[in-house]
Amino acid sequence: MIPISLLELAFISEDSNARSTFEKTKELAQLVDTLGYKRLWLAEHHNMAHVASTATSVLIGHLAGHTQNIRVGSGGIMLPNHSPLIVAEQFGTLAQLYPDRIDLGLGRAPGSDIQTALAIQKDFYEQSQRFPQNVEALEMYFSHKNPYAKVRAFIAEGTGVPIWILGSSTESAALAASKGLPYAFAGHFAPRQMLEAFELYRRNFKASETLKHPYTIAAVNATAADTDQQAEMLSTSLYQMFQNLAQNTGRFLQPPVESLTELLDSMSEQVRLQVKQMTACSFVGSKETITSNLKDFIAQTGVDELMIHSPIYDHQEKLKNMMIMKEVMDDLNR
Questions:
Q1: Sequence-separated (6 or more) residues with CB below 8 Å from residue 117
Q2: By C-alpha distance, which of 181, 174, 176 is closest to 196?
Q3: Nearest residue to 141 via CA among 103, 98, 78, 91
Q4: Which end is more exposed in the chain, N or C (fewer Cβ atoms within 10 Å of the end residue's Cβ)?
Q5: What pairs with residue 164 in β-bridges?
Q6: Tally of structural domains, the chain
């Protein structure tokens, strides 16, 4: 059985604003909760006009409070931006409010450009190099084995918040394997090393108190609709989003255009290459098309869980996408 989960950044579309986006994100969370999605993760990004999940832990609490069963967490918290103690206190508080429903995914990237990273944390470079040590510090803050430390995150101790290592390289896979932690790969924007990273993680995995066997999540782009043609049109918002990132134009999520081919042809060769690299792990089409393609992907990667990322401009189309994707996974799991 391969569970399906959702990675969400609360994208602000061109015709919307942050407040309206939060309402739509709440409705989305309630739908996937009802459908039986396993997790809803929110990603920390900064200095991006179209991303409303900046204060990630705040939004996690909001969505956890409006859902019943789904696990809500970070995909991820960019640890070099934060003190491990503060992260432990925030997620310990969330775990006290919503027991057994909070996940803590950790990344070592800034989730922003370098200037913004330095505005958040002046010693960002040093903290990014200390990522393994800061992960260990977090594990200790959550542990029962910390009673004599001079600095403790009392509210976090014993809450059992699962720590995940997130990444897009073999380096993060090696760290997750050495610590016996579950591993999620960012195939939705950097899929090139996915297979190599999963193989390295599984080969080097060392069982821990929290995890006896390797566990992997692949994050992928998914745009599902009634027909292949409609899904391809809806996916042009995703391609425009990555185009804007490549060109650093700072635009909100754009409405779809009629032709993906014409959109790609309109890009410079360099931008088009970047966009194709970032979108290489995208599943677009009708239920039948995506079911066939995902079956091959799951067999090839051996993933334990699929996490979809779906920047779809129209809210109702996005909700429909979630329903179709759940049907796809239900069919694959039969």
A1: 46, 80, 81, 110, 124
A2: 174
A3: 91
A4: C
A5: 105
A6: 1
Sign of the Cα torsion 87, 88, 92, 93 reads negative
Q: Find where tokens 């996974």 sit.
A: 329
What is the average pLDDT across 105-123?
A: 89
Cα separations (Å) of 90 from 50, 58, 78, 161, 329?
25, 9, 14, 11, 33
Q: In this predicted model, what pLDDT tens digit does every residue of 215-260 receive, in sequence order?
A: 999 999 999 999 999 999 999 999 999 999 999 888 999 999 999 9
CA distance linking residue 55 with residue 46, whole number of Å: 9
Beta carbons within 8 Å of 217's beta carbon, 6+ residues apart: 5, 164, 182, 183, 184, 185, 303, 304, 305, 306, 307
pTM summary value: 0.96
**Residue 248, phi then psi, degrees to nearest 5:** 55, 50
Report the alpha-carbon distance of residue 291 to residue 286 in Å, rounded.
8
Q: Which 3 state secondary structure label does DSSP give 7?
A: strand
Distance CA 321, CA 214 (A): 30
CATH, residue 117: 3.20.20.30
More confident residue, 148 or 258: 258
Domain that holds residue 13: 4-332
Nearby residues of 83 by Cβ (< 8 Å), 6 or more positions away:
none
Q: What are phi and psi of 256, to 5 degrees?
A: -70, 155
SS3 content of the chain, % helix, strand, coil (to 5): 50, 15, 35
d(CA 111, CA 114): 9
Residues facing 104 on adjacent strands: 74, 163
